[in-house]
Amino acid sequence: MRKWYIGNIFIALQKNIKSMASLSKNKIKYIHSLELKKIRKEERVFLAEGPKLVGDLLGHFPCRFLAATPFWFQEHPGIDASELVEVSQEDLSRASLLKTPQQVLAIFEQPQYTLDPEAVRSSLCLALDDVQDPGNLGTIIRLADWFGIEHIICSQNTVDVYNPKTIQATMGGIARVKVHYTSLPDFIRSLGDTPVFGTFLDGKNMYEQPLSANGLIVMGNEGNGIGKEVATLINRKLYIPNYPAGQETSESLNVAIATAVICAEFRRQAAWK
Question: Which CATH architecture has domain 118-272?
Fold first, then answer.
């Protein structure tokens, strides 16, 4: 990277960066099209925005395109991407899907993972049965990253992990958590006698139950909970008690909050064993 100082102005030129230019209408249209699952699936890419998120994902996924302000490039030399474009904040605002654009956006290639039941037999994993809200999925991925859970197995009807709202909500956790889509009933059947946990109103108080360091924790749909077919395959039914017992409270917990409560108890018990 070469550097010049003109008066008090710092100028940094990085190899392969296209100098300040307006993004074409076609490029902006393409970026906006990545809101659609069909386009993301065809192109095998996803969009990420903001210094924190893009910074976390660089080095984990191949980057096809990155557009950023001169200031961002000045602070981040040596970026590896197929196409680098220096843009004005105004141009970035036109391309961004965010209400408040933040210095940089990038298009990354979607990874391809192999789902191995052995991962569930040897570690703690999450399963999501038709979770629909992108923000909930993103938050659950972020939680999984925090609690050291490396795999999330999703039903085919669970919201797309590469939805831009999901990606933003992961806060970079998508770089370390592998998300798989498959038939949940078929996958659970393949686990044999591996512990499969789920939360139900008629389950046992999870604070009074021994929780294993391996197995699958199933979380259900925001409105309907765990589906009937999957529910019949769960061999460890748990209940998250309200406090104090017997007092009238909200009907249920948000699925992401419930996931946090459950994962925290699993990890607490593991730490004391």
Answer: 3-Layer(aba) Sandwich (3.40)
